[in-house]
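User:
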Amino acid sequence: MNTGTRSKEKPSRKSGTKTGRVSSDSESRDCLLRRLSRIEGQFRGIRKMVEEERECLDVIQQITAVREAISMFGIEILKDDLVCHRTGTEVDEKFLKTLFKMR
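Assistant: Predicted structure:
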């Protein structure tokens, strides 16, 4: 039964304002989706390499490439995120790269 508003519901935002969600504009979203498609292709390539019993170092090289691609994907999301722009200063890409390399 719906009794009205939920206690955990986030307040609504005005139309046309940044929401803090991934890619509020279509150009950025399309760019991110293209990146994801390339990453998916890299994963499929790794799977094929394993199925073909390719050299371990070749597979590791592709894994490294996927890790870097995922890190860059995360950096692009953060660079465009509302949270990164709250202070009105530019996002330090070097800081974001360091953040994604932390374990």
